[in-house]
Design goal:
The protein has about 725 residues and is an alpha/beta fold. The chain has a domain at about 50-70 and about 265-635: Glycosidases (TIM Barrel), CATH 3.20.20. β9, α23 (about 555-570) and β10 form a beta-alpha-beta unit. The longest helix has about 30 residues, at about 1-35. The protein is globular and about 80 Å long.
Length: about 725
């Protein structure tokens, strides 16, 4: 009798669960997945036309281009300048030729000493030979400074400005070695070095980043043969790299472009030579340049002894010089104050978990606004605040959705940090507008909000999707919408939720970063946000939209289809004022290093870091100049992709997956080879396949069976 009652309880609970999921699915389908009538008239030669010749305040539209907010080598530049008191005071008045490279090895006369030489120097001074990394690093940094003083007869300030990147990287590498006390035994276990013979490891110069570059070059051929065979995956974090390469396959040892390792790849230094990047940006025909300010650079220390003492005035002046160069190239400025760059000293006490961070941020905001109010047109206070809160305070590594949610709800840390960042935005908004009134200058203030179109993979994944949307979709925006001049939307694609993680769906097209390409999602997101907040009459700006694609095959139709989605939303009454593409060139991702290639221009590390403009660069330039998308442009980009698909070409994506297709969300785990997918994901053409779990597929097959049988009978 007891077992019968228990079975009845479970039966009733099961019926309720199925009914609740059915209701939720119907709701999701009606609001987010139901087919819609395409607002784009595809019979016309001009599919979309944007009013780029009008002022933004007069129902106009602008195209913008984004650059990375901070690069690692620039941090080394600033640190060196701060320690040695040497800093460039002016930027050259005339832009350099776009093809000119200032980063060639021949331009630096610096002779990097070998580890044996360093060992002899330190031993002669009473040290412990080559293992005394601290003394060796100090000596080498000293010689670096002396080298530039002697080389150009003491014109030290100017030389530091022109110092090639290799020398900054050398200094940065030495400081890392000094801090971590690396030994040759530790270096021999780096994945980029493991597998070399003992003699080869002994010949690596610990103080030359080129030493590890050479080891990386020896493994480049392996990158083309990684098949993702399910072996234990490489941990790409600095901690993982220091642990060694036990249980790592030979193929995985070749994957050297892993995150957060500054010496594995070089990047052009836009901090010391902004004109190369700005000429590239000007060539896109964009009229707005989107960049960020690094809070940690401006305030490298906690202002415990007074705010003025904590300010890095040289860094502040340098930012002004750079922004002035942006204006000199005929570009307006969109500036982000907090691009997920919490100062290290704030991290130490908990950052946005503490109320005092609000006061510090407002001091920083007031400083930046007072210094740059005459140069900036669009202010973004926070970039993706809810993403920062989740990844910083709710998970400390690769965690699934359940772990993140449990941490957020149990400790209430997510809600508290979001509330503090909302308070900071509201007060910063007033600070910016108070300064604007004093200067009689029109500016716009907003946020950049990350949105991802989330879909359930299976029937019982619907509650997870609803919960994820509840946490991330509107929460922060609801707090601050009364203090927005525009709402920035960051959109990359859709994600399939399965159980408590992400699912790699075989018949969907993905970017290298594991985002499923879905232009319809941007259209649906804009409509959702407009319907929720239209009473506030606040316009939208697409503040980030881009795709990680080293082949540049996907990026061409990606740009056009997402712009068609934007135009379709505008045709439905959504006020969109601008579109900003991410990114101008391949950039350093804070979570994923150099692995993801987002740039309209690639960077040739074998040719003095020269920018290589790709076909997508010219497509974007054409559209930004004319303000229109033609049927011919669209057909050509799509046909080129279809040709590649028919040839059966493969590419790599940087998200690992297990045998069931569960993706390792939140970090780069491994390159896996994957073919281009024959799926029509163009705007207005995408057809969802429905729920993909076995039960849903079986039910769908049963429902279709009678129709299939009757069709065959008629055919026979």
């Amino acid at each position: 009798m007891f077992l019968l009652n228990v079975s009845k309880v479970f039966g009733v609970a099961g019926i309720i669960a199925v009914a609740a999921n059915t209701f939720a699915f119907l709701r999701i389908h009606r609001r987010k997945l139901a087919p819609f009538e395409n607002p784009i008239d595809e019979s016309q030669e001009v599919l979309a036309s944007f009013p780029v010749n009008k002022d933004v305040d007069d129902d106009g539209f602008f195209f913008a281009i984004s650059t990375a907010s901070a690069l690692l080598e620039e941090d080394a530049c600033l640190k060196f300048a701060a320690e040695h008191g040497d800093y460039p005071e002016e930027i050259k008045p005339e832009p350099k030729d776009g093809n000119q490279s200032i980063l060639s090895e021949s331009q630096t006369g610096l002779k990097v000493r070998s580890s044996e030489q360093l060992g002899e120097d330190t031993e002669s001074k009473g040290g412990n030979g080559g293992q005394n990394l601290e003394n060796a690093s100090t000596l080498c940094a000293k010689n670096l400074s002396e080298h530039h003083q002697i080389k150009e007869g003491g014109r030290h300030n100017k030389d530091l400005y022109e110092m090639p990147l290799e020398e900054w990287e050398l200094l940065n590498y030495e400081q890392m070695a000094e801090k971590e006390q690396w030994s040759r035994e530790q270096v021999s276990r780096f994945p980029s070095v493991a597998g070399l013979g003992k003699s080869e490891v002994e010949n690596i110069d610990l103080y030359d980043p080129k030493g590890l570059h050479k080891c990386y070059d020896q493994h480049l051929e392996l990158l083309g043969s990684i098949e993702g065979k399910g072996e234990k995956l490489l941990d790409p974090t600095p901690e993982g790299l220091m642990k060694g390469s036990e249980n790592v396959t030979d193929e995985q040892k070749g994957v050297a472009t892993q995150p957060k390792v500054s010496y594995l790849e070089e990047k052009p230094c836009s901090w010391s030579d902004p004109d190369r990047e700005l000429q590239l940006a000007k060539g896109t025909n964009a009229t707005v340049f989107h960049m960020g300010i690094d809070w940690n650079r401006i305030m490298p220390e906690e202002p415990l002894d007074g705010f003025e003492k904590a300010i890095n005035r040289k860094a502040l002046d340098r930012y002004r010089c750079k922004i002035e160069r942006v204006r000199a190239h005929g570009l307006r400025v969109m500036l982000t104050l907090f691009h997920q760059s919490l100062p290290t000293w704030a991290c130490a006490y908990g950052g946005w978990k503490k109320d005092k961070t609000i006061d510090y941020f407002l001091q920083y905001t007031r400083l930046i606004v007072d210094r740059f109010y005459d140069l900036v047109d669009f202010w973004i206070t926070f970039n993706e605040p809810h993403v920062f809160a989740l990844t910083t305070y709710c998970c400390s590594g690769p965690a699934n959705l359940f772990q993140v949610a449990a941490t957020a709800l149990r400790q209430r840390v997510y809600r508290s940090t979001i509330n503090r960042m909302a308070t900071a935005h509201i007060k910063a908004y007033d600070i910016i507008h108070d300064t604007r009134e004093k200067a009689s200058r029109n500016v716009s203030v907003g946020i950049a909000h990350h949105t991802s179109f989330m879909r359930p993979y299976g029937f019982f994944d619907i509650p997870t999707v609803e919960f994820s949307n509840w946490m991330t979709c509107f929460g922060y925006v609801d707090h601050v919408f009364s203090k927005l001049d525009f709402l920035g939307i960051n959109y990359y694609g859709q994600e399939f939720i399965s159980s408590v993680g992400l699912k790699l769906v075989e018949n969907e097209e993905y970017s290298e970063s594991g985002r499923c390409i879905y232009p319809d999602g941007l259209y649906r997101v804009l409509l959702d946000f407009h319907n929720r907040y239209k009473k506030f009459n606040v316009p939208f700006i697409i503040t980030k939209n881009g795709v990680a694609d080293a082949t540049d095959i996907l990026r061409r139709p990606y740009i056009l289809e997402h712009l068609l989605a934007v135009k379709a939303a505008m045709n439905k009454g959504v006020p969109v004022k601008g579109y900003c593409f991410w990114a101008l060139s391949d950039n350093w991702e804070s979570a994923n290093g150099h692995s993801f290639k987002f740039g309209l221009a690639a960077i040739d590390s074998d040719n003095n870091l020269k920018y290589i403009t790709q076909p997508s660069y010219y497509i974007f330039s054409e559209v930004a100049k004319s303000g229109s998308i033609t049927k011919g442009q669209r057909d050509k980009a799509w046909d080129e992709l279809q040709t590649v698909i028919e040839q059966g070409n493969n590419r790599f994506i940087f998200f690992g997956s297990d045998a069931q297709g569960a993706m390792h969300a939140g970090r780069v785990e491994n390159r896996i080879k994957r073919p281009f997918v024959k799926k029509d994901w163009r705007f207005g053409h995408y057809r969802p396949d429905g729920l993909q779990d076995p039960v849903s597929r079986t039910i769908r097959w049963i429902c279709r069976a009678p129709h299939m049988i009757s069709t065959r009978q008629e055919g026979s």
